[in-house]
Specification:
With 86 residues, the protein is an alpha+beta fold. The chain is built from 2 helices and 3 strands.
Length: 86
Amino acid sequence: MPVIVVEVMPKAELLDPQGKAVAGALQRLGRSAFSGVRVGKRFELHVDGPVTDALLADAQDVAETLLANLVIEDVVSVRELEDVEA
């Protein structure tokens, strides 16, 4: 079954408390190579039939109207997931 993946991230200019918490935990664990973390959301939309350009456009619209709060988040990608195992 084809899957469309939608990725949503907080807007770059806004604080990301979850990302700050993860970054702090990484530092406490001695993982100093990571200088920052941003936490986002991933949605997987399972579809019946082939993924067409029209369906991707519809998924983009769904992402912008339902999945993301565009005041504080950006839709960073809407794409078909390749090589999905059942």
